[in-house]
Amino acid sequence: MARLASPLTVVEYALPPFERQTKSYVCECDSCRICVEYRFLLPRLFFGGFILPTCWILNIALFVYMQEIVEHAVKFPQLAPEDFPTLFELEMYQKRVPIAPEKIRHQRAAENAGSEETKPGQAPVTNLAATDPLGKLLLDSRLEFLTVVSGDVLASHAENRYYFQSWLWRTAFSLTGYILLLTFVIVALRKSQNP
Q: Which residues cross the membrane (predicted)?
């Protein structure tokens, strides 16, 4: 037996080889790609605006550029053929219930065969995956996969827009408050100088 160099390699070999990885899909429009790159700037410019108010104007200009000038229509990613569910995965799905539910009986059910009752509201369950043709099941699973991907893309696009809009409103309220405070101070100073 080969010696493993570190405890980390022991853990690596102990993990199951076929773990299910969930891949999330994001919008690939120009606006979302730029948003990912400059996302960190918005909070920094917002808080920097309390020291230098021109940062707030830059923050608003950045929002207008990223969300309105750059193309912001939802763009779906190109999916590779290996991303779609395969026939092997669908066969595993079909084989997950090898026994029909009508044939399953509890151990005590064998003892009480004469007093077997059905509960009200209990409908017979059938394994639909085993009765569907394989081609239709494959098409249905691909359609379901595309639905999940489109939901992820739309959610990521909406999340980016919401993030930028929330920082826009914070910046706009802060800038408005700063302008009102500045005009109040100027008016108060003028009135105090004119007796």
A: 45-66, 167-189
What is the residue-averaged pLDDT of the chain?
76
Contact yes or no for 79/149 (Cβ under 8 A): yes
Tell me the residue type at 127: N
Query: Which amino acid belongs to residue 134?
Result: L
Distance, C-alpha 191 to centroid of its chain: 56
Contacts of 71 (CB under 8 A, 6+ apart): 29, 30, 31
Give pLDDT tens digits for 73-86. 888 888 777 777 67
Answer for the pair 152, 24: CB distance below 8 angstroms, yes or no: yes
d(CA 82, CA 76): 17
Q: What type of residue is 52?
A: L
Q: What are the tokens at 148?
A: 């999940």
Q: How many CB atoms lie within 10 A of CB 58?
A: 16
Please give the Cα distance from 185 to 193 (Å, whole number): 12
CA–CA separation, 48 and 41 (whole Å) = 10
Distance CA(108)–CA(123), nearest Å, equals 21
Helix H or strand E encompassing 191? helix 134-193
All residues at 6 or more sequence positions from 160 whose CB lies less than 8 Å from its CB, including other chains: 27, 31, 32, 35, 36
